[in-house]
Amino acid sequence: MLHVSRPTGSIILLELDAPPANALSLQLRAQLVRALDEIATDDDVRAVVLTGRGGVFCAGDDLREAAVRGDGALAAVEDFNRLMDWVEALRVPTIAAVDGWCFGGGLELALACDIRLASDRATFAASGVNIGLVASATRLPRLIGAARAKAHLLTGAQFDAARALFDGIVTAVHTPGALLRQAMKLAEAISSRAPLAVEATKRVIDGKAYVEEELPALIASGDHQEAIAAFMGKRTADFRRK
């Protein structure tokens, strides 16, 4: 259901594998939570790439499962929202590599990541209104502005990777064959930077901290001293997250 691998010592690859749509069933959500919990406590991890197998990113909640939840429906939605918050709050940067369908909760999952790349065959939809719910109404306007977001959120209409790039939902579009490779290349670039500074920068961008709060510890860090020493010695810095 969820494949977890470590292509390098500092990068974790998470692959959703629940054919045909990689829908986020309760089982798949639980597996994702366990993986995130392990990543959060592993100081060697510096970046995460999240993607889907089978030419699909994620088509959202498992509607077949939702149809029989009964009195547990609200709890299931709240559980889903907590999972999205956990993805967003993860200590290290996350990169969504979006291929194929990215609908509803799948779009919310991509939006909870820090950076999104897409294949040229990716198809998106903020489809909460299509199933009588509210979805992505916070993260999407925060990312691309209210006016552009409303065109997606209020219609639930599908749109392609070119529109996602134009609106700023994704930062690059690649062929399906190159998508994961480019996501890994980006993750490698991030993981080569001073990890304490990367994590602090993410917290500041996300409004979880202020620059003034982060600077004292960063200036005193071994990584900052290593960066200066590497510059003076004309060599590559060896950051140790210290």
Give a nutshell description of this structure.
This protein is of the alpha/beta class and 242 residues long. It contains 11 helices and 9 strands.
Structure, described:
The structure is a single chain. The protein is α/β, with parallel strands linked by helices. The protein folds into two domains: 2-190, 2-enoyl-CoA Hydratase, Chain A, domain 1; 194-233, no CATH class. It has eleven helices and nine strands. It has a six-stranded mixed beta sheet, with helices on both faces. Strand 1 (2-8) and strand 2 form a beta hairpin.
Largest sheet: 6 strands, mixed
- List the secondary-structure elements in sequence, H or E: EEHEHHEEHEEHHEHEHHHH
Distance between the termini: 35 Å
Shape: globular
- Class by SSE composition: alpha/beta
CATH architectural label of the largest domain = Alpha-Beta Complex
Biggest sheet, spatial arrangement of strands: 1-2-3-4-6-9
* Number of separate helices: 11
Give the total of domains.
2
Strand share of the residues?
15-25%
Helix share, percent:
40-55%
InterPro entries: ClpP/crotonase-like_dom_sf, Enoyl-CoA_hyd/isom_CS, Enoyl-CoA_hydra/iso
Family: Belongs to the enoyl-CoA hydratase/isomerase family.
Organism: Caulobacter radicis
Protein name: Enoyl-CoA hydratase
